[in-house]
Amino acid sequence: MRRIVEELEVRGGTPLWLQPQVALGLAVAALVWVVVRCAWVSDDAYITFRTVDNLLHGYGLTWNVGERVQAYTHPLWMFLMAVLAGVTGEVFLTSIGLSVAVTLLSLWVLARKVALNLWTAAAAVGMLALSKAFVDYSTSGLENPLTHLLLAVFFLLLIKERGLLWLALCTALLMVNRMDTVLLVAPALAVAFWREKGGWARKTGLVAAGLLPFWLWEGFSAVYYGFLVPNTAFAKLGTGIGAWESAQHGLFYLLNSLRLDPLTLVLICCGALLGLRSRDWRKAALAAGAVLYVAYVVKIGGDFMSGRFLTAPLLVAVMLLATFPLPKRLLAAALLLGVTSPYAPLWSGADYGLQRADVIDRHGIADERAFYYSHAGLLRVREPDHPWAEEGKRASTSGYPVQVKATVGYYGYYAGPGVQIIDPFALGDPLLARLPFFYKADWRVGHFERVLPRGYAETLRTGENRLADKNLARYYDKLALITRGDLLSQERLAAVWEMNRGAYEHWIDQEAYKTGAAIGVKRR
């Protein structure tokens, strides 16, 4: 018996717990343990889940039944969820299970295919386990885990020099999952294109063929929805806010992350610097992509979800770090910073977020998991019991088929297909998304409220155009033809073309709706 114990404790003169395989196994186990303990599903995820529910009940890819509007930004993630939810019959545990499984696949690619050796693999996984942003958005019901996996695969394809076609194919899947993530891989794809052997025609053909999934989705989107980008892009990006004002908010986003989760930004900086200094063009290009994406996040004003848009560049940075021999001082510093961070995921429990006064900072940037965990965390519930979910359940039996409601995730899902929702933030509303937001000096990114045009609610309740603004009424007729008309009618397809080239934009009084003058409201 004693000899067996000695053999277990020592192999080749090295204690078992100092074997690299064991270190990696412990790091992976720690990350999975932390992710599961912190697992939750956000309100925003349920905006997508309402579309999933409508699809599974035969109402098509709609948010409000009868109106073809893309209220989700991540088609590939949405389809994965639809397939699994069709089997399980629910979305809460399904989204968490899918997220954890996809995260494990990402770790496998990182540890077994990308990392320099098992020791650096263990260190890289450990770093991710200490990142609040990575742990928070390894679940949440949003597309981040699938983005992580596709980035890991792209990294592997690039490092192993699998060729331009496969890089383009992975890029296409990234774009179908979330369009703006193309910035993370664009520099690497461009350099790979330049270095590929053969003429320009051959190389262009390879990229075009690889991007086929993206072309197919865009073609479907143009015909089915009438637009090439999701409705959420119109709602969040077409705000009219000045570039400097938006960038300032983007910088506040980084400062918020530095306060709540300093390790994430430190790792992004370290990985990017090492990559940019590398003589390996592949690593330098990937590092450039991470920097480009962070710059883009700053430009668009960041997000209201603390850390959400930093997880993808973080993964790229950590994968870059895993390809270098890492100094022990760097690892010790990362460990110390990770475990001493104010809201380190290692110490998170079922009471996370309770009795905290700083869940939302003065710039409107929230620790979203802290905000929702008590009502939508795996350690507390098996489906959300948030007041907005309960409000949605009441709306489903209220007898009022048209409701005006902001923060429409839980509410919209539990209200069900029988309730049409007018969302002042315009995420699922095609008309409001194309109006300028009602400007307020204390605006919050992702929450750009529109004024409701006079007669709009009556229009949706009656099915007749009751809009008081005659020019806007003409605009709405064209928009309704696109979102509600016969899919392949010549009249609708003509309206799609004219709408996308901006032929009807002069019918919207931008200043009146931005200031509230259109309904007699004064701007704050």
TrEMBL record:
Transmembrane segments annotated in the record for this chain: 20-40, 77-110, 116-135, 142-159, 206-227, 260-277, 308-326
Plastid as UniProt keyword: no
Keyword Ubl conjugation: no
Keywords: Membrane, Transmembrane, Transmembrane helix
Protein name: Glycosyltransferase RgtA/B/C/D-like domain-containing protein
Organism for this UniProt entry: Tumebacillus avium
